[in-house]
Amino acid sequence: MLGDFAVAVFDARARTLWLTVSPQGPRSLFYYRRGSLVAFATTVPPLLAFPGVSRMLDESVVADYLAANNADTERTFFRDIARVCAGTTVTLAPGRQHTSTTWRPARGPVLKLRDPREYVEAARDVLNQVVASRLRCMGDVALQGSGGLDSACVAVAAASQLAPRRLRLVCAVPELGAPAPVLGSYYSDETPQVLELARSVPGLEPEFIAPPRDTDLETDVWKVFNLTGLPVAATPADAWMQGVFSRLSETGIRAYLTGHSGNFTLTWEGTRAISDMCRSGHWMKMSTTALKLGHYQPRKTLGFLFREVVRPHLPRRLARHFRLPNNALREEAFEELGVAQRMRQCGMSPGGYGVPGSREQMTHIVTRNRGQMSDHFMWIRARYGIEPRNPLRDIRMIDFCLSLPTDIFLMEGRRRGLARALLKAAGVSPAIADCETRGKLCPEWFDRVNRRRHTIESNIRTLRDIPLARKLIDFEFLDRLFASWPTDASVALGRHFDVCFALSRVEHIASFLKWAEGEGNGTSSYA
Fold it and tell me: Which of 180, 349, 446, 487 is most buried by its number of CB atoms within 10 A?
């Protein structure tokens, strides 16, 4: 089946239940089994309310969360509750249970066309198909996006198919007056790019939404857990986007398109093709491509060659002690609870170790993190009553991109070359199609974190009273983090991983652990 779904089918005569989820999410489905009894739901709280279901936590899943191990797994934060993974079917019958894979990325023959223009036309055809499938709705559909290549591709296809109706593009912009410094490869405000896109795409109607100063994710996180039963949104960027979702809901939108993670399919960067050229013996082509990508600057060219040719072929044993830098999981827990082993098993090694080719890398990326992405969409659906639709993660788009010669993504010697050529052919301004910088999601992240610093510190301090937290969390790391707090947003630019990513994640899990223990509802997960 195509599309986004979570389906349960019961055969009463065979006493067999099938539970299945679409290959890329974004639907979630969970179940609990005790003997011949099976309960299932699209969120966790109904299962926690079911008689006999324990709130006992799986400490290895909590450790994976802190270590940012995003591999798909049937395990959930609660030992009694399992997940139906994306692209699988769970068969449950008396005395037996079986999980089968319903979809794997296609690894068929390479698509061979006569010239680059035919590849662009083929990509446009597939884009139109996957967008058309997601425009079906009772009511209007909007686009949540930006002025980047992902959103531009979706906008081009959707606006042309909706004509003469207009397509709303709702874009998040920085909070007025908040300091929002960014690194040189980014820009902080999407407004100019989105306006330029609207001038290029007939029927596109932009709307700009500044974030609310405070959101449920920051001031009423209990609401997140009561609706989803999981820690699903942990960073300032998640809070930053709530204004967009609120606006869509308030204006009657029930489904919205997004270009989320299109850079793993249609707008694929393509630089791992250099590794393919090396492996196939096309060393001259490899060298000239690396020179073009590096703008003929020796340092950049050598950087591309090391990152795309040398590093992916290094043995995985070099990454045996790897964990994401600046996370708050204790080193002992990282090894003892098997986090390192699970990350190695699913290929999550630093910077692409052990993933040497372009197709292998794309396959690796589109088959992980699907559970976490589905849970985040579950929160949006439950909180705002709107349906996220992600055409660039449609399996038809994935299989098409995997069928292409890998150097097609490097048309004209440029990263993301296929998407750029598609947009130019559609008449999109070069200011969009040729742009080498990217918009920064929540550029004022430090301002949001800094004004809540003492609240965050207080919330994390309460973790010391929870045995599981003491076992897993590196409190010395957190003490050092607070002691070396950045003086302003510019200084914080180099501290994004610890001050934004790790700290926000720990605070979110702190609240979740207290919620899971039954704080406020008279139950506890610890005997």
Answer: 446
